[in-house]
Amino acid sequence: MKPPQRQGTWAVREGSDLAASEVLVNAPDLVVCLDPELLIEAVGGDAEAFFGLSAQELLGRSALDLIHSEDQERVMANMKRFADGQETYRPELRLMHAGGYSVVVEVVGRRVPGPGGTHYLLVARRQLGLGVRQVADDVGIGILRCDPFGEIHESNAAASLLHGYAGEELFGRIQDLSVRVLAEPDGDSTAASGPETAVQLHPALRYLEDAGVSSQVATIVGRDGVSRVISFDGRRVQYREDGTPGIIMLLREVTELHQMQQELYRRSTRDDLTGLLKRSTFIQAAESMLKATVQQSGEQPAAQSSGSSLFGVLFCDIDRFKSINERHGHGEADRFLAQLSADLALLGTNTEASLSAGGTTSIHLGRIGGDEFALAVQCNNRAEFDRLAAGFRASVQRTALATLHVLVTASVGVSEFDPEVGQTVEELLDEAGAVLRLAKGTGRDRILHCDRSLRAVRIEQKRLEGVLRAALSAGRIEYALQPVVDPYTGQISGAEALARLRDDDGSLVPAAKWIEVAVSAGLSNAVDAAVVEPVIELLGSLVGRCPRGLPVIGVNLSDTSLARPDLAEWIFSLLERHQVDPVAFLVEVPELVLPVIRERAAEALSQFREKGLWLAVDDFGSGYASFNEVRDLPLNTLKIDRSFLTEQRDSADYIILRTALEMTHALGCRSVAEGVETQAELEIVMDLRVDYVQGYLLARPMPPDDFVRLLLSDRTLAPQRIEHGDG
Ligand code: C2E
Ligand code: CA
Ligand code: CA
Fold first, then answer.
1. Cβ neighbours of residue 148 under 8 Å, at least 6 residues apart?
2. Euclidean distance between the first and final Cα of the chain, in Å?
3. Each residue's pLDDT tens digit, 328-359
4. N or C, where is the chain less crowded by C-beta within 10 Å?
């Protein structure tokens, strides 16, 4: 290659006695000429000060000897390329001073052709302190400067190391480096299949193509085969010599930082034990899958749709997991779950069935509760839902046999997206959960689909939830009072308060329909409070107005109310505010929740008893409460469930009823027979010495005002009826 020809000038005004050599001598820089063998043939400028050697000592020496040993190899490589015709040469290097220290200089070189070969004219300028390049090397920041065509003009040792080139400088074209560049996986890649990384352009080239991307992170698989995550920051620059544009990039290795971020991300989105998606991430991933399904089926008419147009959610749960936990211990149970999850990951890959149906199935798999798993499925064949549900069940059986050596079954609720209903993923999960509960309630070990009628029930429940929420926030929950009567005198001893909800059309919604909705929506304590507060207020308004003393009014408390940490405080402060004697207030606790109470509300109940409040077990006999359970709690009233009432003295129910009432007396409790509808039922419970009765026969639940009127009229209720019945 031909060295560049430069048409330099040296002009001196006429009459001046300044000689070119004079200028050289006084130049603040070091000027050195090397012969083709790189031996010094001329020195000028401040050469003696740079090296601490006289000019005579310098002449004839090898230039290389004057360079810091660590820089020699690099400089030689550069010199060689420069000699071969590479562009201007401007390295930064350390020169050795005779005093033993080094001087950092920036060098500009020129080739000077001569008859015996190429001579070199080098001008070195002192750098104050350390050179940028060396500092960069020391802190591991790579520098890469290249022209618009990707030709590298400058790089430092750190840049080479980051590309897996040990000890050499990067040179040549970026395109020709032997590295592979992988795009960084997006943080939100939640697919079960794992992140995809495509080979792509080197960030320097991307930056050259599109200056908009100034900061990039890429994984570089270097020439040494090691992959490093590197952040690249680019700037456009202009070459000092001729003003041509180029870029300079700073490189920093961020592998560790990146790994840490990845790990944090993984932990925030994935379940620790199983590595499956957590509930919130699962829903997010499923949501975008659902969106894609809807878009695809919107773009193509169903008939010719080649994409997957069906979407469904499977709610999968292991039957009797609690007993596995108890029998095998948490450690074993956890190992089982982890093993199961690994097995489940294969569900997505085994798509034979779907392939034969001529389509593709994609799934997301999440762990959404202790033993609850969910699948979001996009497919184009309805049979896929059953295939995957069966796959889950088989996987549970297989894993349980292998790890726990027992037969374990599982149930799955399936809910398919219906474009006419337009459910969200949360709603589909809700529906699938509801059918799952149904499956569990009807013998477990099965797959159930959410069908139209079930969906209609769910929709009605959702509607009622809305009505209830609106009523609660507007303070529009009402209550009725049903008298509780002493059947031997007919006198009203008190009442039970029953919550009432009005539908949008003003009609009353049966409690059986909406109390359940309140419970599953987590609103039952709000409902209880909406009854408790006005009831105590009503009692307060009756103080001093009842000739026979205050009636005892009972309220129903759900388990969430009973678990309120401020339960006793709440009730006592209300009673105090309205100056109501605690003996006029009764709390009904459903028999079903007695075990819960023993753990969480025993303290409050004891305080109630101390102050004279009445405590009743509601629906006694319906929940298999044991004698001990009742005896150990500070209860004093048992409300015998309506299902035990009978009109026949020789029936099995009669025996149970008699036992229940005998038990009440043995426990020293008062008894209330609930739901008495007929004269015969009333007579039987009276024969068995029941203390009080409540039922349609005596009085239906009525508005509070009607109850107050009835109470203050001092009318008796039962005996007349008995007399009538008898007469
Ligand atoms: P419960 O506590 O067992 O209330 C008695 C239920 O039996 C009431 O139904 C009442 O109207 C009904 N009943 C009374 N006498 C008769 C009768 O002679 N025959 C028949 N067949 N039924 C009779 P209601 O008002 O529909 O309430 C149903 C359930 O809703 C209540 O059962 C209670 O568990 C719950 N509930 C009502 N109000 C509240 C409340 O404020 N909070 C809570 N947590 N639950 C409530
Ligand atoms: Ca009750
Ligand atoms: Ca009851």
1. 208, 244, 245, 246, 247
2. 134
3. 888 999 999 999 999 988 876 544 444 444 45
4. C
CB 646 within 8 Å of CB 688: no
Q: Which DSSP helix (H) or strand (E) runs through 116?
A: none
Given 3.40.1030.10, 3.40.50.720, 3.40.50.970, 3.20.20.450, which CATH number is that of 475-638+691-722? 3.20.20.450
- Of the options 3.30.450.20, 1.10.1660.10, 3.20.20.140, 2.60.40.10, the CATH number for the domain spanning 132-264: 3.30.450.20
701 within ligand 1 shell (Cβ under 6 A): yes
Could you list which residues have their CB under 5 Å from ion ligand 2? 556, 588, 618
Q: What tokens appear for 700 in the block?
A: 């239906």
Closest CA to 153 of 283, 220, 240, 214: 240
Quickly name the fold that domain 20-126 has. Beta-Lactamase (3.30.450)
Q: Give which of 605, 453, 460, 471 is closest to 531, Cα–Cα.
A: 471
Ligand 1, pocket-test mutation among 481, 515, 591, 597, most atoms within 8 A of CB: 515
Give the 3-state secondary structure percentages of the chain, helix then strand then coil, rounded to 5.
40, 25, 35
Cross-strand bridge partners of residue 657: none
Residue 508 belongs to what H/E stretch? strand 508-509
Question: What does pTM read for this prediction?
Answer: 0.56
| Ligand 1 binding pocket includes 532 (Cβ within 6 Å) | no
- Closest protein CA for atom 19 of ligand 1: 675
Contacts of 505 (CB under 8 A, 6+ apart): none
Closest C-alpha among 192, 363, 368 to residue 279: 368
User: Under DSSP, is residue 694 helix (H, G, I), strand (E, B) or coil?
Assistant: coil
Q: What is the pLDDT of residues 486-541, one digit of tens each?
A: 999 999 999 999 999 999 999 999 998 899 899 989 999 999 999 999 999 999 99
Q: Label residues 101-118 b or e (16+ Cβ within 10 Å = b).
A: ebbbbbbbbbbeeeeeee
The per-residue DSSP string of 316-344 comes to EEETTHHHHHHHHHHHHHHHHHHHHHHHH
The residues facing 498 across adjacent strands are 480
Cβ atoms of residues 411 and 447 within 8 Å: yes
Name the band, by pLDDT with cuts 50, 70 and 90, for residue 722.
very low
Ligand 1, atom 12: nearest CA belongs to which residue? 675
